[in-house]
Design goal:
single chain, 9 helices, alpha/beta, 11-stranded mixed sheet, Carbamate kinase, 250 residues, 37% helix
Length: 250
């Protein structure tokens, strides 16, 4: 790993929240091999700078709990099915990262001992201290909670400096930029403002958890190569959500 002090990195330990769709590339479903490789290369790039990296991954490219409900599966069962989808994605990302030479561990909130470690906070912290990339799978291990909530929870538990929420858009807008030409991007916005405006950043539980524990979030476009590195170097990318009451529009 690199020398954190000499590089003057803004963040020492980060949590990247990846949606399942980030692995699907431009498609809606499945895992795109080239996209997976590109993500692993970007993760390696910031790892070599000396950043400790935790990742929470979703499963929407394979299965969503909401989909299960619509087909007649009860909500709790559907959510567990979604958690299993996150484990598939975690294993795929682990393999891609290891192909790039990164030491990687998958920790799952649902115990599947033959393919992953159970989630143990102290063990996760130790892995991060040793320079291993830790991928948290299985959500929180409980139905009715999203992987956004899992990301907020794990980031607080393992002492991350920030959550980097990787999306298909370049930040948080006042409206849907695809439908509203007048929609403007926030450079900075507070948690309370995000909750009040009901902006579709994260679910309310995740936002409230971050607000209560002073865990800032940056929403950014993961599909633009170089954004991840720019963020850990402190460059203005995406939208910063924090407890500062300042609201700045682009």
């Amino acid at each position: 790993m690199g020398d954190y002090d000499s590089l003057s990195l803004v963040y020492r330990r980060i949590l990247i929240k990846l949606s399942g769709e980030a692995l699907a590339g431009e498609g809606a479903y499945g895992i795109d091999g080239e996209r997976l490789k590109s993500l692993a290369q970007e993760i390696k790039e910031i790892h070599e700078l000396g950043v400790e990296i935790a990742i929470v991954i979703g499963g929407g490219n394979i299965f969503r709990g909401v989909q299960g409900e619509q087909t007649g599966v009860d909500r709790a069962t559907a959510d567990y099915m979604g958690m299993l989808a996150t484990i598939l994605n975690a294993l795929a990302l682990q393999s891609a990262c290891e192909s790039e030479g990164l030491f990687t561990r998958v920790q799952s909130a649902i115990e599947i001992n033959s393919i992953s470690e159970p989630y143990i906070r102290r063990r996760a912290v130790r892995h991060l201290e040793k320079g291993r990339v830790v991928i948290f799978a299985g959500g929180t291990g409980n139905p009715y909670f999203t992987t956004d909530t899992a990301a907020s929870l794990r980031a607080v538990e393992v002492g991350c400096d920030i959550i980097l929420k990787a999306t298909k858009v370049d930040g948080v807008y006042t409206g849907d930029p695809k439908k509203e030409n007048s929609a403007k991007r926030f450079q900075k916005i507070s948690f309370s403002e995000s909750i009040q405006r009901r902006l579709k950043v994260m679910d309310q539980t995740a936002l409230s958890l971050c607000m209560e524990n002073n865990m800032p979030i940056i929403v950014f476009d993961i599909f633009k190569r170089g954004n991840l590195k720019a963020l850990v170097e402190g460059k203005p990318v995406g939208t910063l959500i924090s407890n500062t009451e300042e609201v700045v529009l682009e």
